[in-house]
Design a protein that fits this description.
By secondary structure, this protein is α+β, with helices and mostly antiparallel strands. It is built from six helices and four strands, in the order H-H-E-H-E-H-E-H-E-H.
Amino acid sequence: MDVFEAIKRRYSCRSYEARSIEQDKLARVLEAARLAPSAKNLQDWRFVVVTDAEKRAKLVEAANNQKFVGTAAAIIVACSNSSHVMRCGQAVGPIDVSIALEHISLQAVAEGLGTCWIGSFYPEKVRAVLGIPQDVAVIELMTIGYPADRQKPAKREPIDKIVSYERWQFGSY
């Protein structure tokens, strides 16, 4: 599968089969994250992969009681150990972690897996469940597993509404 096909097939999976992910597939997915670019090559991401059913259940509570979170074979807790801010004023942690998570998401598609970005969660609850130090930022959660649902077409804006060339040409947004 080429990258563009993986991009087209990726969706937010919210229903998973009750089966574990083969270790070689999970290793390739995590290797995709390791190969992601990062600001100043800091490689500031850290990933806690949670497969234990009891810990996944506790993470459901930390994820605003979204039950589907616990049905995934694994929950990847993405963290950053950097407080570096780029010259443009943006913190590197959320950006670097997001790039790495999208690498995970696209490789997961290539492996026949589904993922979902989880932004509704309480970082302090996640930190307590997994023993994450206070000086490490809990950036995002991502579920991963074999999809039990099927992709539904997502509504996307037309290209001319999101892209302009040479100058801002969008009017009201």
